[in-house]
Automatic annotation (TrEMBL):
PROSITE patterns: DM10 (PS51336). The gene is EFHC1_3. Residues 43-109 form the DM10 domain. This is EF-hand domain-containing protein 1. Keywords: Cell projection, Cilium, Cytoplasm, Cytoskeleton, Flagellum, Repeat. It comes from Saguinus oedipus (Cotton-top tamarin).
Length: 109
């Protein structure tokens, strides 16, 4: 049509698209800990601890005995109550199911 235009200009830089072009940052350092190796080396190995819960300071308190199992293959813990004959308690053997324990305990506010 005979209209002369200016030469093409460079496109303005968009900070968002420039940020998207950069590789994602990884904040997790790679660990040399191998869970499969731990599972295969410590399979069927369990640490057993005997514990007593002494609640004799309360009004109807008593001493209860427990067995704590620590499974080395996956770092889980299980707490079982030791029942005796005619102790007057329901036979619920587990105080805590087998599960992972938190490394950092949070205090109740």
């Amino acid at each position: 049509q005979g209209i002369e235009l200016n030469p093409p200009e460079k496109m303005a830089l968009d900070p968002y698209t420039e940020l998207r072009k950069q590789p994602l940052r990884k904040y997790v350092t790679p660990s040399d800990f191998d869970q499969l190796k731990q599972f295969l080396t410590f399979d069927k190995q369990v640490l057993r601890f005997y514990a007593i819960w002494d609640d004799t300071d309360s009004m109807y308190g008593e001493c209860r005995t427990y067995i704590i199992h620590y499974y080395l293959m996956d770092d889980t813990v299980e707490i079982r109550e030791v029942h005796e004959r005619n102790d007057g308690r329901d036979p619920f053997p587990l105080l805590m199911n087998r599960q992972r324990m938190p490394k950092v305990l949070v205090e109740n506010a």
